[in-house]
Write a sequence for this structure.
C-alpha cells in the first residue's frame, strides 16, 4: 500500500525541487527567506518523552542564539513518557498552535499525514531549509512522502536498532555462567542471579523486557503497530497470524509462568512506574532491554558515575542472524497544520541540524557543564571535568528528530561496543519489509479498540505469568479476542499487507 505513499521525491535541489515544485520558493504564499525573519516570533515545539532538569538553562542559551540569528525564540515542550501516545494524538487533533513536533513511523506518522495533521513541506523546504534540502538523501525524502507531499524532515543518522539486553556481566562471570546465546542461557543467568545473589533479575517495569524477548526469540514480525498480529518469521512474511493463537505463544506463556513463580520479576510489575535499568544501577536488578544506541548511553552513564559494576550487552539479532536497519521515517520533525510560522520553524530546524553550535547545545547540552571537548574534534567528554553526574545528569532529551551523522560526536572513554556491533550488523543486514506497511485502521477501529482492551486486561498478565492457571487464562484470552473481533482485524491486516507485498514483489 505504501508504494504510492512512499514515492521518491528527490534529495537535492536539482532532482527534487524541480520535479515536485515548479515554484520552489513558494513565493505565491510565503515570504522570502530574507523577509521571513523581519518580525520577531515565538515558536512552540514539542518532543516526545521527558524533559531534563537543566532544560530551562539550555533553552536560555539556545534562545539567545536564535534571537540573534533568526529573530526567534522557541518554547520547547515535552509529552513525557507517561501515556505519551494519547497526549501526542490529542496535541495534533485539538487544534493547539504548534510549530514543530517530533514525528515517527512508530508514532502514526503515515496515518496522521494522510489525515491532514501535518503541513506539506514540499514547496517550503528549498527556500527555508536549503542546507537540509540538499543533504538529505533522495530515499530518505521518499520515506516521509505521503500522497506526493513531503510531510516531515527525517533525521540523517543511519542506525540499527534491534532489541537486546544490557545485563550485569560481572555477575555472569562471578557466577561462572556461559555467555548469552539462547533462551536457556538467559534463563540460567536469571536463575543464578535470583538464587545466589538474591536479586530480582528484571525489577520494576517488566512487560516490555519480556515481550521483546518473546518476539525476537520466535522471530515474530508484528505488523501495523499491533502486539497481536504478525508474520511468523522474516522469511515467511505472508504467513500472518493472530500471535496469541499460535503454539509458540502457548509454549511461551507457560514458560513465563515458570519464570514468574521463580521470582524473576515482582508480582506488582504491571503497576510499577520505575524502569528496570534504574534497579541495575542500584544493584537491585540485572537485566534491561535496550537497543544498541540506548545500551551505549546506559553503559556510558554507569561508567561516568563510577558505579562498581561491569555491564554487558547481548543483541537479539544473534538468535536468527539478521538485522533490519531503522527506517528514515522513524525519527523526524514535522510541522502541524496548526502552525502559524512554518517558514521560521524550518529555518530554525535547518540551523539546528547543520550548525554545530546549535546541534551540540541541543543534542549534548551546555559545554563545560554537561560535556567538554575531547582530544579530537569528533570526540566529547561527558560530563565536563569536575561535574558530578548525580548532580548534573547527562543531557538526554529525545533529540532524535534532528540528528545529522556528520555532526554526531563520539563519547571519549565510552562504550566501544556500538562500533563493533555496527560491523557485526552490516553483513547480516536485510531490508525492513514490514515497517513501511501503512495501516489505516478506520474501517476496523471498533474491533481494534475492543481487541486492545482485551490485550491490556488479559494479555499482559498472561505474558508475565501473573495468573494462577495458564490453560484457563489462555482460553479466556482467546475467547475474549474472538468476541472482540480479532478475526476481522486479522483479515484487514492481511489484506493491507498483501497489497504492499504484491506492489513490492515480496513473496
Amino acid at each position: 500500500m505504501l508504494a504510492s505513499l512512499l514515492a521518491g521525491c528527490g534529495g537535492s535541489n536539482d532532482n527534487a525541487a524541480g520535479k515536485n515544485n515548479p515554484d520552489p520558493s513558494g513565493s505565491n504564499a510565503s515570504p522570502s527567506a530574507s523577509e521571513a525573519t523581519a518580525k520577531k516570533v515565538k515558536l512552540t515545539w514539542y518532543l516526545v518523552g521527558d524533559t531534563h532538569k537543566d532544560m530551562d538553562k539550555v533553552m536560555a542559551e539556545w534562545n539567545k542564539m536564535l534571537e540573534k540569528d533568526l529573530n526567534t525564540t522557541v518554547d520547547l515542550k515535552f509529552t513525557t513518557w507517561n501515556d505519551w501516545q494519547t497526549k501526542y494524538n490529542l496535541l495534533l487533533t485539538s487544534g493547539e498552535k504548534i510549530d514543530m513536533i517530533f514525528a515517527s513511523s512508530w508514532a502514526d506518522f503515515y496515518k496522521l499525514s494522510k489525515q491532514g495533521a501535518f503541513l506539506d513541506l514540499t514547496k517550503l523546504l528549498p527556500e527555508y531549509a536549503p542546507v537540509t534540502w540538499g543533504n538529505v538523501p533522495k530515499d530518505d525524502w521518499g520515506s516521509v512522502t505521503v500522497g506526493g507531499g513531503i510531510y516531515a524532515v527525517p533525521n540523517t543518522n543511519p542506525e540499527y536498532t534491534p532489541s537486546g539486553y544490557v545485563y550485569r556481566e560481572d555477575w555472569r562471570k562471578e557466577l561462572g555462567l556461559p555467555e548469552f546465546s539462547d533462551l536457556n542461557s538467559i534463563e540460567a543467568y536469571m536463575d543464578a542471579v535470583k538464587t545466589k545473589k538474591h536479586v530480582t533479575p528484571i525489577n520494576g517495569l517488566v512487560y516490555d523486557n519480556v515481550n521483546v524477548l518473546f518476539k525476537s526469540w520466535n522471530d515474530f514480525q508484528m505488523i501495523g503497530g499491533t502486539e497481536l498480529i504478525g508474520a511468523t518469521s522474516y522469511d515467511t512474511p505472508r504467513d500472518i497470524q493472530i500471535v496469541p493463537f499460535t503454539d509458540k505463544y502457548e509454549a511461551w506463556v507457560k514458560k513465563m509462568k515458570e519464570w514468574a513463580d521463580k521470582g524473576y520479576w515482582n508480582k506488582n510489575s504491571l503497576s510499577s512506574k520505575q524502569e528496570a535499568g534504574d534497579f541495575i544501577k542500584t544493584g537491585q536488578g540485572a537485566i534491561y532491554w535496550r537497543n544498541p544506541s540506548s545500551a551505549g548511553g546506559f553503559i556510558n552513564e554507569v561508567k561516568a558515575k563510577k558505579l562498581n559494576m561491569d555491564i554487558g550487552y547481548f543483541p537479539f539479532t544473534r538468535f536468527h542472524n539478521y538485522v533490519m536497519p531503522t527506517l528514515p521515517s522513524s525519527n523526524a520533525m514535522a510541522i502541524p497544520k496548526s502552525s502559524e510560522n512554518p517558514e521560521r520553524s524550518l529555518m530554525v530546524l535547518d540551523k539546528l541540524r547543520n550548525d554545530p553550535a546549535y546541534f551540540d547545545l541541543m543534542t549534548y547540552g551546555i559545554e563545560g557543564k554537561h560535556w567538554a571537548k575531547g582530544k579530537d574534534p569528533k570526540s566529547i567528554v561527558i560530563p565536563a571535568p569536575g561535574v558530578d553526574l548525580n548532580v548534573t545528569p547527562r543531557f538526554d532529551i529525545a533529540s532524535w528528530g534532528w540528528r545529522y551523522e556528520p555532526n554526531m560526536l563520539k563519547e571519549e572513554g565510552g562504550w566501544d561496543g556500538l562500533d563493533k556491533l555496527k560491523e557485526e550488523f552490516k553483513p547480516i543486514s536485510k531490508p525492513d519489509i514490514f515497517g513501511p506497511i501503512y495501516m489505516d485502521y478506520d474501517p476496523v477501529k471498533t474491533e481494534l479498540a475492543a481487541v486492545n482492551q482485551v490485550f491490556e486486561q488479559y494479555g499482559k498478565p498472561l505474558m508475565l505469568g501473573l495468573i494462577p492457571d495458564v490453560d484457563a487464562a489462555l482460553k479466556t484470552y482467546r475467547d475474549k479476542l474472538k468476541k472482540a473481533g480479532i478475526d476481522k482485524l486479522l483479515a484487514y491486516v492481511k489484506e493491507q499487507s498483501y497489497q504492499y507485498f504484491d506492489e513490492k514483489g515480496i513473496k
Observations:
- The longest strand covers residues 41-47.
- The chain has 21 helices and 16 strands.
- The two ends are 15 Å apart (CA to CA).
- The first helix runs from residue 2 to 5.
